Predict the structure.
Amino acid sequence: MSTLTGVPDTESFTVGRDRATGLVAVIAIDDTTLGPALGGIRWTSYASEEAAIIECRRLGRVMSLKNALADIGYGGGKSVILASPAITDRRAALLAFGRLVARMGGAYLPAADMGTGVEDLRIVRETALDTSCHDADPSVSTAIGVHAAIAQAVRAINLSPGLQGITVLIQGAGAVGARLATLLAADGARILIADIDKRRAADVAARVSGAAIDVAETLSTPCDVFAPCAGARVIDDETARRLPARLVAGAANDVLADPGVAETLTERGITYVPDFVANAGGVIQVRALRDGWSDARLQDALRAIGQRTADILDEASGPAGATPLAVAESAAYALLGRTRPPVNTPASTPEATA
Ligand code: NAI
């Protein structure tokens, strides 16, 4: 993400191992200024343990910024489970992961993320004592929030008064991407969708009368809106220089490979809605469920993501010339009682593994 050329100055992180189950996991508690660190469990493969630690810490910072702006009384954190053939019993590995979470003493509240779901959280809860969103899939609210962000952003940048006839290319036909496709299509948007699982993309495309496109062509297919809903760091400086879109807004966390990419996008006239603004619906749903909000209150809070997006884009279009990312990050860091780290300066402290 943006300000992080390397890794952020995470409050603490832990690498946990459970030899009996083959589990290797990282938990990053990024910032607890506003409350316990809420963030998902990502289960995927990594080139190395170091790569997993870096990703976990970067994603933990994204969560701190997201949760601060969403005003939900949580800090930010993240965890990753390193996918490995050594793990043969998923349930046993998740129980071991829960024991690792329990050792954090309540400082980390796990949620679902790529590679994990509500069922997994129910298992983690058996040993972790507490988890978020084990009762409902957060991707429903995440998709509603991303839809609100896109709808407001197309207006804010004068692309169109509404979504009718707008072409949206969604990368990832998973839990959020599929739901987002339905919501956008209902407003008259034309959907292009790509997924490494071709059948998944084809199914969603058929359902919304859109078109599935080849994964290799995701970043070169012309569209009005590119909505990344798959993995991290999908746009680097080179792809930003040729991305044929007017707006980037999606669910995926940590979408930009490095801070300069936001500026390259702006130079090219492409508006980037910061990931942690657009995709806050899931964490808002967590707060809603834990506090017993009415559905009307939850829907209001999700709609507010659209207004927040419009406000950020409005400020970014002002005379100061800041990118939407800089505007959003500055606001989030202010809520954390900090100033935004200068771009291109790694906000890292090479602390020992805690
Ligand atoms: P998911 O695991 O249900 O779906 C991800 C989809 O992306 C899968 O269908 C996968 O096959 C596909 N995919 C992976 N790599 C791809 C590639 N290179 N090109 C095209 N497709 C690819 O995940 P989910 O829940 O839909 O989340 C999507 C993204 O949104 C993730 O980055 C996640 O961290 C983020 N997010 C999700 C939230 C939620 O409530 N589920 C909340 C906030 C962020």
